[in-house]
């Protein structure tokens, strides 16, 4: 089998999801915002046992970059995608690996010895919002040494597209820099997801270290706004934030940077640092940033929004790796994001639908 062309790196997590009818109670009990992604603090730690014992929960494979990897695999031929992250030697890992196997993602996990457990995310749904509260456990024990193991070194050499979940910047900037610097100097494509407002807010230093090596930056409106605040741009409008991020320093200057900002059901924005000089399949038009309306999705078709942004990003990436145009990549992203909204958790429709 040929080597995967896409490699994603992130925090492998098992999602423990509470449905919307019971969500409000847990938001209040644990002082969580309706639509947010945070690292669990001391006061949140009982939430995992609490929801398992007292709520109707669904277990679903999660971890933002792992979700995106499965979405990329959905649109690419078998064997195209691999995923790197750190897990415990436990049943949670088995569950994640089975889902990756079933959906065509090669799991190149670093496995921490017992009793370290695989990370988990409490997903509290209310209406169309989702609150993510994560305990990283094994995920934050990832070490750069894993990148030079023969299996992973081969994956990194063979791949052409690298997807980094911004969430790993809380603990893994050294590994991220190793992956992205090598990729960027070899002329390969690096995609970074901002992941959550707290990343630009509290991990700005790490973000600024990685940004020069990023060809395509993906985020949503609240992450972009958090970046603007952290970067001293106040409440600048989204097009300005996107254009500023697009034109910030780049190590591989021969290739322009794209910044993609999603806004749920509102239009997606794409800014390019150099629209006329884009590589052949990624040309934007004269409109910069360009706006892409999101097809409408009726409310009764939405089960929950957990993972929709990841599926957008992974769909975009898969389409990009198959040589599609920018417009087509955004369209595939929108389609997979919406498909995910119709499932419980970060899932797509199986058997596979054509996208
Ligand atoms: C470091 N944190 C907070 C996280 C995450 C995370 N993935 C990586 N690191 N917090 C939540 N997630 C995942 O985001 C997906 C939805 O976008 C959840 O596991 C969920 O599947």
Can you offer a commentary on this structure?
The structure is a single chain. With 355 residues, the chain is of the alpha/beta class. Helices cover 35% and strands 23% of the residues. The chain has a nine-stranded mixed β-sheet, with helices on both faces. A five-stranded mixed β-sheet has the order 3-8-7-2-4. A hairpin with a 2-residue loop joins strand 7 and strand 8 (129-135). The two termini are 24 Å apart. Bound molecules: 6N-dimethyladenosine (26A). 6N-dimethyladenosine binds at residues 10-11, 13, 15, 37, 39, 62-64, 67, 121, 132, 134, 136, 165, 167, 170, 306-307, 309-310, 346.
As residue ranges, the low-confidence spans are none
Reading the helices and strands in chain order gives EEHEHEHEHEEEHEHEHHEHHEEEHH
State the separation between the terminal residues, measured CA to CA: 24 Å
Apparent shape: globular
Binned strand content: 15-25%
Strand order of the largest sheet: 6-5-1-9-10-11-12-13-14
């Amino acid at each position: 089998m040929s080597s995967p062309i896409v490699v994603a790196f992130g925090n492998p997590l098992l999602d423990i999801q509470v449905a919307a009818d019971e969500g409000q109670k847990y938001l209040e009990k644990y002082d969580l915002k309706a639509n947010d992604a945070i690292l669990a603090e001391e006061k949140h730690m009982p939430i995992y046992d609490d929801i398992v014992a007292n709520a109707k929960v669904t277990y679903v494979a999660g971890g933002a970059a792992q979700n995106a990897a499965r979405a990329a695999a959905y649109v690419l031929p078998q064997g195209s995608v691999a995923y790197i992250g750190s897990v415990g030697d436990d049943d949670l890992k088995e569950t994640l690996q089975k889902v990756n196997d079933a959906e065509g993602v090669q799991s190149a996990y670093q496995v921490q010895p017992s009793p370290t457990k695989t990370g988990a995310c409490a997903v509290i749904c209310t209406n169309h919002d989702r609150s993510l509260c994560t305990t990283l456990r094994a995920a934050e024990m990832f070490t750069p040494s894993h990148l030079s193991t023969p299996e992973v070194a081969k994956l990194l050499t063979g791949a052409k597209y690298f997807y980094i979940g911004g969430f790993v910047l809380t603990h893994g900037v050294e590994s991220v820099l190793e992956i992205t610097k090598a990729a960027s100097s070899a002329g390969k494509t690096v995609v970074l997801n901002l992941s959550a407002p707290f990343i630009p807010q509290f991990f700005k230093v790490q973000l600024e270290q990685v940004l020069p090596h990023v060809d395509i930056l993906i985020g949503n409106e609240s992450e972009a706004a958090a970046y603007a605040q952290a970067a001293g741009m106040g409440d600048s409008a989204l097009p300005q934030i996107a254009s500023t991020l697009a034109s910030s320093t780049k190590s591989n200057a021969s290739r322009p940077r794209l910044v993609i900002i999603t806004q749920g059901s509102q239009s997606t924005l794409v800014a390019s640092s150099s629209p006329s000089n884009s590589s052949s399949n990624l040309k934007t038009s004269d409109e910069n940033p360009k706006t892409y309306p999101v097809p409408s999705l009726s409310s009764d078709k939405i089960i929950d929004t957990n993972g929709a942004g990841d599926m957008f990003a992974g769909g975009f990436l898969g389409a990009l790796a198959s040589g599609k145009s920018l417009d087509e990549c955004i369209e595939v992203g929108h389609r997979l994001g919406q498909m995910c909204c119709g499932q419980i958790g970060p899932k797509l429709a199986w058997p596979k639908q054509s996208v």
